[in-house]
Amino acid sequence: MSGHSPSEVEGGAPRPHSPEDDDRLVVALVRGVHGLKGAVRVEILTDKPESRYAPGSVLYREGTDDALTVAWSSAVADGPGWRIRFEEIRNRETAESLKGAYLEVPVRPDAALARGEYFWHEVIGSIVSDVDGTVLGTVRDVYRSGGAEVYTVAGGPYGEFDVPGVRAFVRVFAPRRGEIVVDAAALDLSPPKRSGAGDRPKAPRRRPGPRRPRSAVPPGQGEPPGSA
Q1: CA distances (Å), origin 68, targets 60, 72, 86, 87, 88
Q2: For the chain, how big is the Rg over CA atoms in Å?
Q3: Where in the chain are the domains?
Q4: Which of 30, 32, 72, 124 could staple 85 via S-S, CB 3.0–4.6 A?
Q5: Which alpha helices (H) appear in 66-204, and where do they start and end?
């Protein structure tokens, strides 16, 4: 992971924990079921699927302490996502109960990130300004699209708009001090229409589907941030 945009696509705000507990970060969203033996197809919400979904890894359904031990996993050859089969799930009927569920991994609160990397929950709430100093709003959400992270900004003169996490649009990315500077001219922003119809500005559109905060690092030289 490198650059200056989000990069380890993991974790919204960590779950509350006692000192001896681990935090958890979201690494997958179950989109469907594959075959009769309980395999599921997941949307990748991590830059490290090979290690996060490796056989023997333990995932948890969000909000539960039920362990799901990866028995087998593989990237989908003819489309996005991965297929995973868990030791605890042996048939299609049981696997159906996971559809729509986020899957988490435990991470120690003191887990170190590489320099320039951030969890997505650290990005949420950051003030976003134009290069001329005009405040454009705050980051309300982060999601991943087309290999890059995208920040949803709202609360400013342009209403709600999306900022792809690449250097062409993001000039300063410092969420720990609450500062993100973008190039409003490059984003081609325009004020929302007063009619209430079509009031999203001229900015890259988000793809459909659920959006959930994960994690972050800065954009590369005009390209989406890389993976670790």
Answers
A1: 6, 12, 6, 7, 6
A2: 19
A3: 23-107, 118-216
A4: 72
A5: 92-96, 120-123, 184-187
Pairing relationship of beta strands 39-44 and 58-61 according to DSSP bridges: unpaired
The predicted structure's pLDDT at residue 131: 94
CATH of domain 118-216: 2.30.30.240
H or E stretch at 137? strand 135-145
Asked whether this chain's domains 23-107 and 118-216 adopt the same fold, the reply is no
pLDDT at 48: 80
What's the residue count for the chain? 228
Give me 102's structure tokens.
């986020």
- What CATH code is assigned to 23-107? 2.40.30.60
Residue spans of the chain under pLDDT 50: 1-21, 199-228
Answer whether 162's CB lies under 8 Å from 203's CB. yes
Reported pTM: 0.51
> What pLDDT is stored for residue 109 in this prediction?
53
- Residue 225: the pLDDT is 40
Neighbours of 153 (CB within 10 A): 26
pLDDT in tens, 67-123: 999 999 999 887 778 999 999 999 999 999 999 999 998 876 555 566 666 777 788
- CA-angle at 11, arms to 43 and 205, nearest 5°: 60
Q: Where are the alpha helices (DSSP H) in the chain?
A: 49-52, 92-96, 120-123, 184-187
Q: How many CA atoms lie within 13 A of 106 on its CB side?
A: 14
Distance CA 151, CA 220 (A): 15
